[in-house]
What does this fold into?
Amino acid sequence: MSSAKDIADDVRVLAFDIFGTVVDWHGSIAREVQAIAPRVDGDAFARAWRAGYKPAMARVMAGEQGWTLIDDLHRQILDSLLPQFGLDRLDEAQRRQLNRAWHRLDAWPDSVEGLTRLKRHYTICTLSNGNIGLLTDMAKRAGLPWDCVLSAEVFRAYKPDPATYLGVARVFDLRPDEVMLVAAHHDDLAGARACGLRTAYIERPLEFGAAHIKDVSPQPGNDLHAASLTALADQLGC
Amino acid sequence: MSSAKDIADDVRVLAFDIFGTVVDWHGSIAREVQAIAPRVDGDAFARAWRAGYKPAMARVMAGEQGWTLIDDLHRQILDSLLPQFGLDRLDEAQRRQLNRAWHRLDAWPDSVEGLTRLKRHYTICTLSNGNIGLLTDMAKRAGLPWDCVLSAEVFRAYKPDPATYLGVARVFDLRPDEVMLVAAHHDDLAGARACGLRTAYIERPLEFGAAHIKDVSPQPGNDLHAASLTALADQLGC
It folds into this structure.
């Protein structure tokens, strides 16, 4: 593990995972579904919707389905999920509106301040499987001050495909070790590390809600480990 | 021509041409080359470099050269241009540094204020043939507050290919007439109009320098015609 000082000097671009790392998908989705269906278990609904996400991307990457934006994958999962929650009555307009909840996720309380501080010293960009429109709408609503919105949509591959991590370095004409992925998920960070990027783990114990506290203890291999984005800014001297 | 009020109500995304429309490539390039070679005619050098741009893109679109980022096209043109200006002595590091001048173009005096006001009511994005890294570096230096950086690089086609204009509408899941292209070039605006986008012409009489005043008189077909980005914000009630 390099020192935070070495990393602060070498890194030029910070690329951020979004769902769970910068924004609270669980709390936001639970709130949105309960707003239209107060008797639905918002916690279970949010976790079920999110659980469909990796299998859906895997089907695309296996070639069972052509290249698909996350908005459309979210909608496919939503349609398959509604009957289990007694929500088959939702009409097309309501389904569209609920699906757009992923464009309206709330930031974690430290995100705007942390990103604003980090932006003074680094180029900060998204690196999310979410599509560009989703990420742009989210940033505008939540005040996330990205220098640039990068997405699986730009590289036509989802994380952890190396095309995504190496794509960020190529976009900015940098070596991979001049880019750091910031994420709350060890599998994402491992994918970035395998491509030569630096990595910073962010603790998000509440990612799956207060009833399902996530183990956020440090794992070997990451360059940095921080409790929040403001704590990351502290470590990098921003 | 629709009324400005109708357009203000219907349009959701403003997509901006960059070189000449938002930033002053002529003045910036002339200044940069004169900083390293005071005896070079900065005006002639800037215009010659820029003049190589459309033919270079045409070679790529004709399949004579594979897909190429603008940074690399700029470098090819630069290398071919240096002998004419007595600058063949520039070494690799100096050429790289000069080529990056396109990342350091100054904004026109009204751009930051105009964009900031327009951003309150619309999603504002770039739609430039410049690559993402170039546009991001430029925005960070000049303080251009984009919601999103879109580029030929995302669509793997240069303007005026319809894939670029329609690509913006698709990214944001909008109809073409909910997107307005803002540009100082009639050919770019005509390409957008042919795809169903709204168009706003911006007067930039000094685009080619004070010695080569550009005719900026209105032409039929554009929805709006404004003297600057702040004037455009006035027209749209921002």
Remarks:
- Residues 25-36 of chain A form the longest helix (12 residues).
- Chain A has a mean pLDDT of 96.
- The radius of gyration of chain A is 18 Å.
